[in-house]
Structures are given as structure tokens and as C-alpha cells.
Amino acid sequence: MIRFIKLREKHLEQVLKWRTQEDVTKFMNTDIEKDMDKQREWYKKISNSKTDLYWIIEIKGKHVGVISLNNIDYVNKRTSWGFYIGEEKYRLYGGIIPPYFYNYVFSKFDLHKITAEVMEGNNNVIKLNLMHGYRMVGVYKDHIFKNDVYSDLNLLELMREDWIKLNKYQRYVCEFEE
Predict the structure, then answer these.
(1) Is the dihedral of CA 159, 106, 12, 175 positive or negative?
(2) Domain spans of the chain?
(3) What superfamily in CATH does domain 2-176 come from?
(4) pLDDT of 91-122, one tens digit each?
(5) Among 36, 72, 118, 124, who pairs with 154 as Cys (CB 3.0-4.6 Å)?
């Protein structure tokens, strides 16, 4: 039902459409322009990165969003991550996508910790992260300046051992294209 397809250049137009939707971008740290040349530049940068990996989220054969690992630190065994679902009717799957991702990341990359930054007001994502075993580690006050307003940035972390202790998402395994 769910698989993760390596992001390719052929996906860029769809990704740009999703990423610039108001209901997606409102909780992103930055806004981007609807500019395919800049999108291609971004893709070239991340395609050559050893510390950033991106996938298209596919549900029941339909491309619905993007998920990524960012700033992978292979020495300290940690990474940050993010995801969004651009297809509104598939957002109800938002709560089950992360367990598939955590199982893959913790087994494939032998990481010790995953960190998340969640913008103020994105309360459903904070609740979801806490339900998945994250702990709140702090808040950067007035950290993001967007639309002429400062917003706080919530900092969370999920330790591998805490994820394994939850012991209720082990069956959430699916295909990740590499």
C-alpha cells in the first residue's frame, strides 16, 4: 500500500506544486517561488549530497508527497527529517507514514537519533511525534520570520532505543527505493 520512491527529476514539477500550496508551506521554515529553474538547481544540489536523501511517498499507486532525511551525520549517528503530503485526500495517512520511515532509517543507517523541528501552530505534528516516542527538547523562540511574523520552532528528538521500546510499529515495513 505504501512505498517510497527515490526522488527523480521527473517528479520536480509535482513536488513544486505541492511545496508551494498554502496548506503545505504554512508550516515550512521557508517559502519558495514557483520557479522550475530554481527547482532544478535545488534538485541538482540534493542529488549530489551525501547527507540528504529524498523520496516520493506513494500510497495505493498514487504519488502523494515527499519525505526526506537531512543533515545525516554519519559520525554522531543522527539526522533530521521532514515530510509533507501534498494531496489533501491522502493526509489521513499522515500518522502511519512515519513508522515505516523510522523502521527503515533505524535499520538501514544504524542511526542513534532522529531530530525534528516543528513550527509553532503545527500542533497535530507535535502530538504525532510525541505519540511515536519523541521527546520535546526545547523551543527556539521567534526563530522563523515569515509573512512579517516571528514564529517559534519546537525541537524534538527520537532515540533509536525509545523507538524500539515502543514495540508497536514493528510490522510497518515497506519498500524504499535506493
Answers:
(1) negative
(2) 2-176
(3) Gcn5-related N-acetyltransferase (GNAT) (3.40.630.30)
(4) 999 999 999 999 999 999 989 999 999 999 99
(5) 118
Joined grid coordinates for residue 164: 524500539
CB within 8 A of 126, min separation 6: which ones? 118, 136, 154, 156
CA nearest 103: which of 19, 175, 18?
Answer: 175
Flag whether the pTM goes above 0.85.
yes
The position carrying cell 527515490 is 6
**Contact by Cβ (8 Å): 23, 90:** no
| DSSP symbols for the chain | -EEEEE--GGGHHHHHHHHTSHHHHTTSSS---S-HHHHHHHHHHHHT-SS-EEEEEEETTEEEEEEEEEEEETTTTEEEEEEEE-SGGGGGGTTTHHHHHHHHHHHHS--SEEEEEEETT-HHHHHHHHHTT-EEEEEEEEEEEETTEEEEEEEEEEEHHHHHHH-S-TT---EE--
Q: Helix 36-47 and helix 12-19: axis angle, to 10°?
A: 110
Mean pLDDT of 37-53: 96
